[in-house]
Each structure stands twice: as structure tokens, then as C-alpha cells.
Amino acid sequence: MENQEVETTQSIFQSTTAKMIMVGLLTLVLLIPLSFVQDLIKERSNRQKEVIAETTSKWGESVYFYGPILKIPYKDPITLRIENAFFFPEQLTNTSSAEIKTPLQRSNYKSNVFTTKMQFTGNYIEPNFAKKNIPKDNIVWNKATIIIRTTNLKSVNDEVKIKLGDNNFTFEPIHTNKTNDSMESLETGYFDYNTIKNTKFNINITYNGSKRISIVPIGKTTDATMHSNWASPNFNGNFIPNDKKITSKGFDATWKILHFNRPFAQENFEVLPELSKYAFAVDFITPVDEYQQNERASKYGFLVIGLTFLIFFLIQSISKISIHIFQYVMVGIALIMFYTLLISITEHSSFGFAYAIAGTSVVVMITLYSISILKDKRFPTFIGIALSILYTFIYVIIQLEEYALLVGSIGLFFILAAVMYFSRKIEWNK
After folding, report:
1. CB 71 within 8 A of CB 145
2. CA 240 to CA 235: how far, in whole Å?
């Protein structure tokens, strides 16, 4: 009787269903070390962001330009206090170029930086104080100035000057105690507006920068063009380009923005408004960096482990070859090692090269191990080919952006069809 119970118990544990349950539980257990690998990737990615932020802060951060703005003081006819009126250009034309430099490298981390040359030309029309009922005698014409609001002032490469007609004026920084204001101001010395009215202005400014260039379209008509050798721009901000051309060698973009395209007036009395949210911008981004690719690859870890175990299980069920649970564990650990190899090699080379080395190493290791388990070269060869196809399939999905979901869904459909085909003759009752 006892022998019969022992045989029954052994029969239950040797059944196909029991083996399948154990393999399934092992797959879930291996998600624990896989999550540790994902945490490692996030940790290295955060470290990269910290190093890049520190590096770019020394070279130059995002570039923001708001100006040039004509400022004319006047005496308020009611309070008799001196106030300021701000007038935007009638026509503003901007031509910018951004040359991406050789990445700044610190340790294993690289920062994409650029040098941008920006030229602004245009003109102002006669300021209209009549709508505010300000008498002409109250206007202090001889204390007019030009103002620029910008960021990244420490990375401006040369003196900033404005040419008004035949006159040149140099901008000087205006330092304030506003610690929460990231914008900085530049202002010229006083001049008599009557000596330069109806003349054109010209400004040239060069920045060292990174991440983004944004410009506020304050002209009644603003025409802007930008050229760069960066091949992956992200056009952002409140306005997209009217025309753009992106190639592997860089991009060209143009904007034309009229005053009724944006919700602010051409003149402002007393207070200069904050208009950064109305700027048009270009982000100089890396579409998918190495850590993002590693993170994407790790998200397919459950699929790789599950399908690999399923291949071994189907071979075991079809061929009647016994595979111990310990051998499943060794294969699972080898699959986890792929991701640690991938991230460590990626930090010293490209993602593609690291993926090829890590994938080849793991496929060869599992194939050789399978030969000793299965005592036959046919099944290990099939396992090696299947793993190679699976890793190639995942690499293709990682590289795709717009079609990743489509290709992934089609690939999974064919994998499911293959599993259904090869498992159709398994006797599940045994």
C-alpha cells in the first residue's frame, strides 16, 4: 500500500502538468534577478544624467532669447511717477546656426553640446503713447534703451552689441536679487530715440549651449531660419516650423509668425511680460540613448526566459529526455547574464556591438550546455537557431520607433503559431 502511494506521488511529480507548473514557477522566480538588473540600468542612467547636467553646466545650458525690446521712460500723468514703456519690433528676422561639437566626455558618459550663432535684424515704428493718454512732454526720449532677456549668459562668447542705423551700442548685464528667476537681462546705455527712429537694428550673438534653443517671436512679423548639423531635432515650443528639411547631415527649418498668431500686444506699459511659454524651440535630443535601449531590452526579459524554457519543455516532452529543474536554473541564469553583459559592454562601446557580443556569448553558452543535457546535436542546434532569431527579433524591435508595436505584434503572433504547432501532439494526461 505504501509503495503504491509512493509510486502515485512520484507519478504526479513526473507528470507533464507538474513539470510545466515547476518551469512556470521558476520563470516567475527569475523575474527577481531580472528586476535587479533593471534597477541597475536605471541607476546607471540616472548617474549619466547627473554627469551630463554637471558637464553641460560648465560648457553652456539651454539657450533662450527674448528681444530686442525698446524701453522708453515716461512720467505717468496721474501719479507723476516715472514708469517704463516697452515696444516690440515691427519686423524681426532671425538667422541661427547650431554646430554640434565633439561630445564632451567624462568617465563613460558623453554630453552633446553646440555652438550657436544668432543674428537678429529688424526695425521699430514710432511708439504710440497716445492710446494711454500720455502727453508728448511726459516722454523721456533721451533715456531710451534696448533690452534683451536671455539665459546662459555666462556662455556668451563675445561682447553683445546692437547697431542702430550708424550707431553701435554695447549691452551690459543687469544683475538682480531674484534668485528664482532663471532669466538674465542685458541693457544698453541711454540714447535719444529721436536720433535713431525709423532705422534698422542688427544684433549678433554667439552662445555655447546644450539641449535646446528657444526664441520668443516678438516681432509684429517674425521670420526665423535655423540650420544645424544635428540629425535628430525635436521641434517644440508654441510654434512648429512652416517648413523643415531633416537629413542624416542635419536640418533646416523656417518659421513665419504674425502678431495675430500669438496672444500678446506689441507694446506694454509699466511691466515687461514673461513670454517664455510662447517661444518656438528646437530640442537637440538623442532619440534613444544606450540606457534607454538597455531598458527596452530588459523589458523583453520575461519573454526571452519564458520562450527559452518553453522550447526546452517542448523538446523534453516530445523527445522524452529528462531535464532536471537545476538545469533549467542554469539556463535561466545564463539568460539573465545577457543583460549584465549588455549594459557593461555598452558603456564602453556602441549598443549594437554590445548586443552582438552579449547575445552571441549567451547563445553559444546555452547551445553547448544543451549538448551535454540533451545528448544530441539536433535539438541544441535548434535551440541555438531559435535563440538567435529571438534576440535578433528583439533587437529589431528596439531599433524601431513608429513600427515597433506593429512588428512586435506580428512577431508574437508567429511565435504563438509555432508553439501551437509543435505542442499539438503532446500527451498532457501523462
Report:
1. yes
2. 6
Q: How far apart are CA 332 and CA 305, in angstroms?
A: 6
Q: Could you tell me if residue 198 is left (phi over 0), alpha (psi between -120 and 50 degrees) or otherwise beta?
A: left
Handedness of CA 358, 364, 368, 374 (dihedral sign): positive
Instruction: Count Cβ atoms within 10 A of the Cβ of residue 271 and give its class: 0-12 exposed, 13-18 middle, 19 or more buried.
Output: exposed
CA separation (Å) from 422 to 363, 414, 419?
A: 22, 12, 5
Is pLDDT at 394 greater than 70 in this prediction? yes
The count of other CB atoms within 10 Å of the CB of residue 273 is 12
Nearest to 142 by CA among 209, 218, 185, 197: 197
Give the tens place of pLDDT for each residue, 10-39: 444 456 666 677 777 888 888 888 888 888
pLDDT in tens, 88-139: 999 999 999 998 876 655 655 666 788 899 999 999 988 888 888 888 889 9
What is the C-alpha separation between 329 and 22, in angstroms, rounded?
Answer: 11
Q: How far apart are CA 326 and CA 26, in angstroms?
A: 10
Locate cell 523721456: which residue? 140
